[in-house]
Amino acid sequence: MCGIVGSIGRSDDTVDVLMDGLRSLEYRGYDSTGIALGPKLQVLRKSGELDALTEVVNANEPTGTYGIGHTRWSTHGPPTDRNAHPHTDENGRVAVVHNGIIENYAELKSELEAQGVTFSSDTDTEVVPHLIAQRLADGVDAETAFHETVDRLDGSYAIAAIIDGEETIYAARQGSPLVVGVGDTCTYLASDVPAFVEHTRDVIYLEDGQRVRADADGYTVFDDDREPVEVSIETVSYTAEETGKSGYDHYMLKEIHEQPTALRQCFSGRADALEGTISLEEVDEIPQPDAVQFVACGTSYHAALYGASILRETGVPAEAYLASEYALSPPPLSLGTLVVGITQSGETADTLAALRDAQSRGVTTLALTNTVNSTAARECDHAVYIRAGPEIGVAATKTFSSQLVGCNLLAEELVDGQRDLRPLIESLRGLPDDVQSILDSSAAESLVDDYADSDAYFFIGRGTNVAVALEGALKCKEISYEHAEGFPAGELKHGPLALVTPDTPVFAVVIGDDERAQKTLGNIKEVQARGAPVIAVTDGESAADEIADETLMIPETSERAAPVLANVQLQLFSYHLADELGRPIDKPRNLAKSVTVE
Ligand code: F6R
């Protein structure tokens, strides 16, 4: 986890560039922040969010023509000042920022301590500046000292280092994201493009094993044999405005409201409504798989549950697995199995590990991701992009909706058959307008007054709406810090019903009026009999809105599209609940957007 940033080649605004870059990387962690500037090495760092560092910067007014910065999500050592990056060697000659985990740090630390080096933090990172400093003390030049140090590291890292007096930034990538921004006269480095997109949209996505030397004249990329390599520069399509809040109080609310656009982008050019066909050119040569295994975490896992459920409906055996469990107890698979990793960031360590495990067993892998050129996209045999645009709020919203649409596109592309897809296409094409109508008229905010004092919140649904119930509960707990649980509606009576009281509102997702809906109505009555207020999220087809205490209506649509709409209502409830409770919605405690540790 963590975010790193670097800038070289600018004259007098390096501090602002680094601080702005860190602001846009805070979604990667916000336990502490820090910057280091050169050529006269200065390090400023502080525990807490970026505002705490801003005070330190304002008090010290540092200057520099280049520098590196870091925002931390703690892994080794608590979130204190002493563990904040950048870390330095004992003489303050070398400063290093790092995202990832150095797995052999304990061994390296013992070796350094045996040689008399004193450590001043609890982090794994601190071995790096000490190792570089040792090689410099041996008389080795700075670049060689950096390479030799990186050669000794095991684990995952995106690292950037500066050395007193050397007008250069050295960086390396292994298992954690690192991109280079190519400006006219400046070079930037960051964990993610939004950190420098206001300065340049020209980007190099580094490969694992690659290293960079950047100075005022430009940059050189090396492979792990220290040989310069040719790299391609890509131009990202989004702008700095798209990564700002555009007048919304929170990124999460902005991203909820961006869903009509995100869904349009995801669907655009991938279906022919007249012909009734769906085509995803990225995967059109994949034959129909014997089976599909989805691997994913958190919200993306809920999308995977939905994806597996709709694939099973088309007759393809499909299961969703939690990526963090998959590689440790891999399910059997035949060579005709397709393993699909659903990952917004494309960088989630658990999901990457599961995909790598599948690949090592010889099957085809596919990444369904939002992040172009992410590790998942590059490592898998195929990548399908959900095109939701940048998502900054830690709580996934628009990417989940786009994942559900992406699952439909994928399912229909993978399954051979002559079914008339026109009704499905019509409903998916109508989603942007349907979502917009919910955004314009939702009663979710008005429920908060009545329910903000509840003991807990429960969410139930059946079929594909189990994924909606689980996602509704995850969103609620992660941003409001209130206890929330999601269940398949039929499971309530097998245990969770014991938790139900008049102070535990139950959100019941009831779509259509089929047998599942009827059974869910029965479950509504069961919880009402225990005094719990029920909020039905429904299209009005069944009697749910008559039975429930409150209703969040969604437009009528297909069974496949309805979960997207139901989820938007639940997103809005969780958002307004968290807002009412004064929670830091975009940066919930203990969480980070991109989870690059297992
Ligand atoms: C919750 C949330 C997380 C992520 C999970 C996987 O709102 O965002 O549960 O869904 O960490 O992340 P990705 O999709 O990047 O693999």
Which sheet architecture does the biggest sheet show? 8 strands, antiparallel
Strand content: 15-25%
Average pLDDT for all residues: 94
Which hetero ligands occur in this complex? fructose -6-phosphate
Contiguous runs where pLDDT drops below 50 for at least 5 residues: none
The neighbouring-strand order within the major sheet is 3-2-4-1-10-9-11-14
The count of helical stretches stands at 18
Helix coverage percent of residues? 25-40%
Structural class: alpha/beta
Separation, N- and C-terminal Cα atoms: 10 Å
What spatial form do the alpha-carbon principal axes imply?
globular
What gyration radius follows from the Cα positions, in whole Å? Answer: 25 Å
How many strand segments? Answer: 26
What's the gist of this structure?
This protein is α/β, with parallel strands linked by helices and 598 residues long.
